[in-house]
Design goal:
Structural class: alpha+beta
Strand content: 15-25%
Strand order of the largest sheet: 5-2-3-6-7
Number of helices: 9
CATH class of the largest domain: Alpha Beta
Number of strands: 7
CATH superfamily of the largest domain: GTP cyclohydrolase I, C-terminal domain/NADPH-dependent 7-cyano-7-deazaguanine reductase, N-terminal domain
CATH architecture of the largest domain: 2-Layer Sandwich
Shape: elongated
Distance between the termini: 64 Å
Largest sheet: 5 strands, mixed
Length: 197
């Protein structure tokens, strides 16, 4: 009897997503009323709202005016930015690290803003190729640099847990804009600094 009242309370306090997760659990052959699953729909809703919170964030909000005039025209590199995202094909996680570099022209961006930009795009339903390109384009839009380079290294649960089931596979994607695309020496310097040469 107590379990039933808990279910009603969770359903009442849960959102539309949570109520539909109960249906999914039933379709998978589970009992959404058993103790271990009573709060799962609401927990999953909260988790998904966090993991897709990038849809509610914009570039101006992330940058928040943190652009500074500095006489500096050498490479700025932020390495090993951890990220977690969800593959849009299976809604399974992929995760890894991103290296972001740019060549300033007139301004630099606050260093903490670069990982925040990565999170803004990672916390959406994604494919790694698009994620890499979006980060590069956002840095370009925010800073108007002479060039941007983004290298993303990731492991995908859709390849590790299902399908080909290759647990040690990894995927590397890159986006090179401006001087990083046109100038081999600049591109090679970046790749050397992130350990890819």
């Amino acid at each position: 009897m107590k379990a039933k009242s808990n279910v009603k309370m969770i359903s009442a306090s849960g959102g539309e997503i949570a109520s539909r997760v109960q249906d999914v659990l039933r379709l998978l052959g589970e009992d959404p009323h058993r103790e271990g699953l009573l709060a799962t729909p609401r927990r999953w809703e909260h988790a998904m709202q966090f993991l897709t919170s990038g849809y509610k964030t914009s570039l101006p909000e992330v940058v928040n005016g943190a652009l500074f005039s500095v006489k500096f025209d050498e490479m700025v590199l932020v390495k090993n930015i951890e990220f977690y995202s969800l593959c849009e094909h299976h809604l399974l996680p992929f995760f890894g690290k991103v290296h972001v570099a740019y060549l300033p022209k007139d301004k630099v961006i606050g260093l903490s803003k670069i990982p925040r930009l990565v999170d803004m795009f990672a916390r959406r339903l994604q494919v790694q190729e698009r994620l890499t390109q979006q980060i590069a384009e956002a840095i370009t839009e925010a800073v108007s640099p002479r060039g941007v380079a983004v290298l993303c290294e990731a492991q995908h649960f859709c390849m590790m847990m299902r399908g080909v089931e290759k647990q040690h596979s990894g995927t590397v994607t890159s986006a090179m804009l401006g001087s990083f695309r046109k100038n081999k020496a600049t591109r090679d310097e970046f790749l050397s600094l992130v350990g890819r040469t």
